[in-house]
Structure formats: structure tokens, C-alpha cells
Design brief:
There is one protein chain. A hairpin with a 2-residue loop joins strand 38 and strand 39. The longest helix is centred in the first third of the chain and has 12 residues, at 24-35. This protein is mostly beta strands. Strands 11, 12, 13, 14, 15, 16, 19, 20 and 21 form a 9-stranded mixed sheet that branches. Strands 22, 23, 24, 25, 26, 27, 28, 29 and 30 form a 9-stranded mixed sheet that branches. It is built from 9 helices and 48 strands.
């Protein structure tokens, strides 16, 4: 699999660069110098390797592709033809007539496009990374072209760092399971970046070699949300009415300076006076050109009476979250001088262009300097000394009206109470959801493609109030009842689930007009979502106490001696760790217990020793007697049959019954049978082993265990 093979290439039309594929050396220089920097030039890949077995678990991730801040993983089942990438294909490469099997790399790119909602430009690059730090960049257009036969081939191997994998002391790279093959003009049909790393296997870069920004698919430019909005049916979302201008429509409005596009009627140019007061007031003037807020409210379905009744409007920045709330009922003015007592009224503006000057006469007739992102919110003064300059919102993209019903709620246990009936609820309006996230992802729902607009569900859980732990169960409350998706909080990772407030098909047509939000994710599509409800799950799933005595629930201990009790807590699924183990005694005058479970017998009597981890609790009874009583003998069953993988408890008996000795267990062959300190034996593999139990005064018994 590691031989060098030169292959002719099918030539493609030039795209302002070398025709066909770049030669391997040129690509590696491009990656080393342009993408990775001069200090990161990779060493040549070693060619020799040794075969290894495929992953025993088909769900093992063997290839990942990163795009726009999100990683898309593919399992062994996916690349070997039993998963989401379709059936396995086999292709014969020309040199030496060698065949390789796997899935087309273009299929991977198509799947990532579908999952991300981002169309990959043919001039973007795919940076592939190998385990030996070797890297190569491929043009997306070349990978998509079927003529080049880029194959993600299944090839489980370990590459040898030192050359000869059979040599003594040979050193190997981490296991790899795929390589990339092509009929390209690289000289190798399986090009040298063949030991493809499992993590960060490939990354999509733009034409300049930069990461694709996470906001590359931002759908909304400006949005107005609130109960008073009466938007067109095409804009009604799952979570309520909203009116918006998309990012593309906003760009069209900006580029044409208000002469083109469906919202050209909202365009206005307005002048403002301002004061900036940081100890000494500074006065100035601004002119803005862009979307008049009043006209946008009218377009959102509000009438003059509703606009006049608004007592507050909040404008929020999509860039940094900064917001300003103002009362639109109060007339605002532009004052000609700082000493003016009156001025002309002026409406608020979501400006796409802004210019400033020291005097009104120095302002241009229309603003010409474009704003950096979205819009800049401008509004007038109540009086010349009012400091308004700092309240101009840069990056403004969300307008929230005063009354807005919750679109989504996170219902979680109270952070300061152990009572499960005490809850904390975090409510999110539609405007709040849009302000926090405007992600666009593509999912398959019922055989059809749906494009969901919304925000990452994990971001909401991170922000919500209450006690929310990784192991907690998550239920989805819908208008039709409560749904159990079989998820815990740990499964809600970044990028895994989308809370969508609007959905459309791939052509941009609205999919449905539901009543509330949607939750999308791998294997999950839940409609009409009102809330998610978090039910607390104890971090400790199991607590086991063991004692070096015959009984695992009680023991007789001589006064002044010690007994080493131990407890092991098993964490619940999703939990970072089990709860800590706390030891207590019911009678410290009889017996005390240390933080590690060691009991010290103080005086004659009985005490209950308790280990607690979260809600799990287990007790052990200690009877303290005046003098030690030595065992005269100990017995075990002579033989025991055990199935491989099964576990049973061996029953030992010590004589006399009141003996105070401790015991230890040992297996003659732990590769066949394992035994723990409580006498539980586990069959590991077929064979025979002798289990020995020994008292602290030297008495022994044995049991021959046969594993079948």
C-alpha cells in the first residue's frame, strides 16, 4: 500500500492557475509557507507502515472535517460503506492496476454542505493533515470533480517513524484508518499525506488560506420582533411574528444606496446633533443614510396608533451585545448650537452610512462612509446637553418591542435547593433568541430537507439559571405533551442541536408555520417546542462498600484494632465524576472512621459505619469486643464452574463464628480468574485457577475455579 505510483491526470480547464491539479510539491510549499507559516514546513512522510485491524466498534471516529468553527465527524461505518456516506465504492488506479475501496471524498464534502448549510466554493481549499505533521492543500473544485477520483480509502495502518517497521526498536505513529487516493498528477495515486490524522483530519479554508468564519452563513441583517408585529405569512416563525431584512437584502440596499431591492422604500437620510461628555462636553453633528426605524415598524405591520403607543424600544448590537432602550413617544431633536432652546424633530435611523462634522454646514448632503457591520443606530437629543454619542449602537441588528411573549423556556432545578419541586425558569423571547444566535443548518426531516434558522441549544443551557449538570436528563415540552428524546445534558454539545425559530427548504420556501420553536439534531426533529425541562440525576450511579472480612455487612473487631473499609462510587452516564464519598459513624465512642474508611475500635459496643455519595448510601455494622479471637480454620467450596465474563461471590466460612481476624484473597492466575477483596470472582478467559483465602493469623482455604 505504500509504493510510489505515477499516474496520468485528466486535465481540466484552467481557473486562473495551473490547469488540472497542482503538483504535490507545489501544494506542500503552499501549505508550509502560506498556510502554516515558514516555521511549520513539514518533513516528508515516511512510506513504510504495518497493517492493523479495523476498529472493533464501527462507531469509532476515523475522520473529521472542520468548517466555519464546527467539526463534522465520520465513523468507520461511514467510510466503509455502512453509514451516512452511502455504499462503499472500489476504484482501480492506473499505475500497477491497484484497487482501493472506500467512499468518494466529494461525497464527504456534499454531506458537510448539507449538514452545515454552507456551499463550498470551488476555489476554497481543503487542508489535509497527517499524523506526522505532513500537510497538503487540495482545491475544493478539484475534489468535487469526478474526473479526479478523489477517494477516502479505508486502510488501517500504523506508519513507521524510523523507516523499517520490522526492525528492532521501530517507532510508530498513532493508528490511522484512511488515506486519500486520486488519479491526480502528483506522482502518487495515493498521495503522501496518506496517514490521515483522526482528529482535525481536514479543514476547509478560503481562497486566501484563511479559516471560514462562523458567521459566513448569517441569514438575517435586521429583525423587528414583538407581539405587536404583524408580519407577512412568509416571515412568521415557529416562535411568533417577526419582520426582517436578510443580510443579502441589507447588502443590496447598501450597495445601491437605497435605490434597489424590496425595501428601497425604507431608505432615508437624516441629520443629528450629539453631545459626548467625558468630563468636558464635546458637541458635533452626524448625517446618516439607511433604514428609517419608523418606516421599518410600519413595514412590520404596526399602524400609526400602535407606534404612538410604544413606551420603549430596545435596539441591540449583533456584534457585541450592547443595547439601548429609548421611549419613542418622546420627540427628539437636532439642535443647531449647544445653546439652542429648540430644534427640528428627527426620527431614529438604522444607518448604513455615517459621516460626522464639527458644524451642521460641514456635513455632506448624504452620508458616504459605510458602517463596519449591520447598521449603526442614530437618534436625536432631548436637549443639547444630553450625552447621546456613546449611545449610538454600532452593529445594530435587532429591534425589540416592549411586549414579547416567551418563545422558549429552560426549566431547571433550583440551584440553591435540594427540593426537586423548587424550579428556576429562564424565559427567552424571539428577539432574545435572534440576538443571541442566528445560525443556519440543514437537516433531513421525514425524507425532506429542512434548513433551520436559530441558535445552538447548548448556548441557551449554558446561560439558563438553575442547577444543570452533565448527567441530568433532558425532556422536551411541546404543545402536544412532553417528549423524551433519550438525551442527557452532556449530549447537548456545541453544534449538536439547533433551536430553530424558522425553517425553510433548500429553495428558501417556508416549510411550516408552527406555533413555537423546533429542535433539530442528529436523529432528532421535534416540533412546537415550548421548553426543555431538566430533571436532576445523581452523579453517583452506584456505591459499593467492601471489607476484608467474610461478611460484607458486619464484622467483629477487637478493641484497639483497625478495620480497613473501602467504598467505590461509579459515576452516572454523562457525569464528570461521582459525588465524593463521605464516611460517618453512628457512635464515635465505640468506633471512629477516617476519611478513607478505616475504622478504629475504641470501646466495646456496636456502631454503624455509613458511606454516602450523593443520594447513594451503604452501611456496615461494627461490633467491638474486649479481646481478639483467632480463627481456628476457614473453608471454601472445593470447586467452582464459572462462565467467561460472569461474576459470582465465593462464600467463605470462618471458625469460630466470633473470630476477629481479617482475610485476604488471591488468584493463582488473574488472567483466567480475577478476585476482589470481598471474594467476588470474575471469569476472564477459559482455563483453571486456584483462589486462596487467608486469615490474618495464617489459616487458609482454596477453591479450584474452572472457566468455560
Amino acid at each position: 500500500m505504500s509504493r510510489s505510483r505515477r499516474v496520468p491526470v485528466a486535465r481540466r480547464p484552467a481557473r486562473g492557475r495551473l490547469s488540472g491539479l497542482w503538483k504535490l510539491l507545489g501544494m506542500c510549499v503552499l501549505v508550509a509557507v502560506v498556510l502554516l507559516g515558514p516555521a511549520a514546513a513539514p518533513s516528508l512522510a515516511k512510506t513504510l507502515s504495518k497493517p492493523i485491524d479495523p476498529p472493533s466498534d464501527p462507531s469509532t471516529v476515523v475522520f473529521t472535517l472542520s468548517l466555519a468553527g464546527r467539526s463534522y465527524s465520520y465513523s468507520w461505518a461511514d467510510v466503509s460503506g455502512a453509514g451516512r456516506l452511502g455504499s462503499k465504492v472500489t476504484h482501480q488506479y492506473t499505475l500497477e492496476n491497484e484497487e482501493w475501496s472506500g467512499v468518494w471524498l466529494r461525497t464527504v464534502l456534499a454531506d458537510v454542505e448539507q449538514r452545515s448549510g454552507i456551499t463550498l466554493d470551488e476555489n476554497w481549499k481543503l487542508r489535509v493533515t497527517a499524523v506526522d505533521a505532513y500537510a497538503c492543500a487540495l482545491f475544493v473544485g478539484d475534489v468535487k470533480d469526478p474526473a479526479n477520483n478523489y477517494l477516502l480509502a479505508t486502510d488501517p495502518v500504523q506508519g513507521c517513524k524510523t523507516g523499517d517497521p520490522t526492525a528492532p526498536g521501530a517507532e510508530f505513529y498513532e493508528p490511522t484508518y484512511v488515506r486519500i487516493c486520486t488519479n491526480g498528477d502528483y506522482g502518487n495515486s495515493a498521495f503522501p499525506a496518506r496517514l490521515v490524522a483522526t482528529a482535525d483530519s481536514a479543514t476547509v479554508l478560503d481562497a486566501a488560506g484563511n479559516q471560514i468564519p462562523a458567521t459566513a452563513h448569517q441569514p438575517i441583517g435586521i429583525i423587528v420582533a414583538g407581539d405587536a408585529v404583524n408580519a407577512p405569512a412568509s416571515m412568521q416563525t415557529y416562535s411568533g411574528d417577526a419582520f426582517w431584512i436578510t443580510a443579502d437584502e441589507l447588502s443590496q440596499l447598501k450597495d445601491s444606496r437605497g435605490t434597489e431591492g424590496p425595501y428601497s422604500g425604507l431608505w432615508a437620510t437624516l441629520r443629528y446633533s450629539y453631545c459626548e461628555n467625558h468630563g468636558a462636553p464635546v458637541y458635533g453633528f452626524a448625517v446618516g443614510s439607511g433604514v428609517a426605524l419608523r418606516q421599518m415598524l410600519l413595514a412590520a405591520g404596526l399602524d400609526d396608533g400602535q407606534i404612538a403607543a410604544l413606551d420603549r424600544v430596545t435596539v441591540t448590537s449583533g456584534s457585541d451585545g450592547y443595547s439601548v432602550t429609548f421611549d419613542p413617544r418622546q420627540p427628539r431633536y437636532v439642535f443647531l448650537t449647544p445653546a439652542a432652546v429648540s430644534g427640528d424633530s428627527v426620527d431614529p435611523l438604522l444607518a448604513l452610512y455615517v459621516d460626522e462634522a464639527a458644524t451642521l454646514d460641514d456635513l455632506p448632503a448624504e452620508a458616504t462612509t459605510p458602517v463596519a457591520a449591520f447598521t449603526k443606530f442614530l437618534y436625536g437629543q432631548l436637549e443639547p446637553s444630553e450625552s447621546t454619542k456613546c449611545s449610538f449602537v454600532s452593529g445594530a441588528n435587532s429591534v425589540s418591542l416592549p411586549t414579547a411573549s416567551p418563545a422558549f423556556t429552560v426549566d431547571a432545578p433550583d440551584a440553591y435547593s435540594d427540593d426537586p419541586t423548587v424550579r428556576q425558569k429562564s424565559h427567552f423571547t424571539l428577539a432574545a433568541l435572534v440576538t443571541k444566535g442566528n445560525d443556519r443548518r440543514t437537516y433531513q426531516v421525514g425524507g425532506a430537507t429542512a434548513v433551520g434558522h436559530g441558535l445552538d441549544l447548548k448556548a441557551l443551557l449554558d446561560e439558563a439559571r438553575g442547577r444543570i449538570c452533565p448527567q441530568d436528563k433532558l425532556f422536551v415540552v411541546t404543545s402536544g405533551g412532553t417528549v423524551d428524546p433519550g438525551l442527557n445534558v452532556a449530549a447537548i454539545t456545541t453544534g449538536a442541536y439547533l433551536l430553530a425559530y424558522y425553517s425553510e427548504d433548500t429553495n428558501g420556501a417556508k416549510v411550516a408555520n408552527g406555533t413555537q420553536t423546533m429542535i433539530y439534531g442528529d436523529g432528532v426533529a421535534i416540533a412546537d417546542v415550548l421548553a426543555v425541562k431538566i430533571e436532576h440525576v445523581d452523579a453517583t450511579a452506584k456505591l459499593v462498600l467492601t471489607s476484608p472480612t467474610v461478611s460484607q455487612s458486619r464484622a467483629i473487631v477487637a478493641r484497639g484494632s483497625k478495620l480497613a473499609l473501602r467504598a467505590v462510587a461509579t459515576k452516572a452516564a454523562g457525569a464528570l465524576a461521582p459525588n465524593p464519598i463521605v464516611w460517618r459513624t453512628s457512635n464515635a465512642r465505640v468506633a471512629t472512621v477516617a476519611t478513607n474508611g478505616t475504622v478504629t475500635a475504641r470501646r466495646c459496643g456496636t456502631a454503624a459505619i455509613t458511606a454516602t455519595s450523593g443520594s447513594r448510601r451503604v452501611s456496615f455494622t461494627v461490633k467491638v469486643v474486649a479481646r481478639a479471637v483467632n480463627a481456628t480454620r476457614i473453608t471454601l467450596p472445593r470447586t467452582k464452574l464459572l462462565a467467561r465474563g460472569s461474576t459470582v461471590k465465593l462464600s467463605a466460612r470462618v471458625y469460630p463464628a466470633g473470630a476477629t481476624n481479617t482475610i485476604t484473597w488471591k488468584s493463582s492466575n488473574s488472567r483466567v480468574v480475577k478476585v476482589d477483596r470481598s471474594g467476588r470472582i470474575t471469569g476472564v478467559r477459559r482455563g483453571r485457577a486456584t483462589i486462596t483465602v487467608r486469615t490474618s493469623n495464617g489459616k487458609t482455604a482454596t477453591c479450584i475455579v474452572t472457566v468455560r
